[in-house]
Amino acid sequence: MAAASNRLDRFLARTLQRSLKQIRLDLVKGRVKVDGEFCDEPARLVHQFTRIDYDDQVLQNNLPIYILLHKPVGVVCATKDLQHQTVVDLIDHPQKHQLHIVGRLDLNSTGLVLLTNDGRWSSALTDPEQKVPKVYEVEVEHPLSASYVTAFAEGMYFEYENQTTAPASLRILSTHTAQVVLTEGKYHQIKRMFGRFRNPVLKLHRTAIGHYRLPSDLKVGEWQLGKCCVINEGGKGHEDMSTGSF
Ligand code: URA
């Protein structure tokens, strides 16, 4: 999903259906602006959100979109689904069909879902190497004990993936509720981890992804638009998204 960079001359040749030779002449003649400045460098790297003008024609002017949504139970984390309402169906935005989901939740889970058209930002947030913490509140059927804390911290071997889960934190909040922090996102991971204790998950709610928290005043089914985004290591340093300016 990462938004790749392209050479300016190749972008122009493809968009304008002109040869690379013609494009280089156009560049020398000062017919091209990149982000509002004249540019004559054929090898200049441009990406999805670089504004590009050719004479008076705007060739590209995409704005990044960042959306934070409070997912209800019964809504599917997909862009299209024949059976269920999707998270995209809940969003009223003219460019909503350009969005992709940053880390899915199961049909019966609730809480924070991020959507964007910015592949570089979503890749940074979902890259396992970055170990971006995802925080969940979990309610289970049977009482919890200290052995859960140890088992989550040690990791559990998942035969299907032939992998052991990364160390996860589990903090017991009450007899039947806990806060779980994962730094990865395997299929049904939390349910499978509690499944080892034969303890079914009754409720699963995500409250944060990295620094991006579900605002307490964002009602179930509602969404907010982010103003801008700075890509930092692990998607961790975005003040606008993580604080009140959403
Ligand atoms: N783990 C699960 O089992 N389900 C989710 O929705 C998220 C994490």
How does this structure look, described?
With 246 residues, the chain is of the alpha+beta class. The protein folds into two domains: 55 residues, Structural Genomics Hypothetical 15.5 Kd Protein In mrcA-pckA Intergenic Region, Chain A, CATH 3.10.290.10; 178 residues, 2-Layer Sandwich (Pseudouridine synthase), CATH 3.30.2350. 19% of the residues lie in helices and 28% in strands. It has six helices and 17 strands. Strands 7, 8, 9, 10, 13, 14, 15, 16 and 17 form a nine-stranded mixed sheet that branches. The chain has a four-stranded antiparallel sheet with strand order 3-2-5-6, with no helix packed on it. Strands 1-4 form a two-stranded antiparallel sheet. The longest helix is centred in the first third of the chain and has 9 residues. The C terminus is likely disordered.
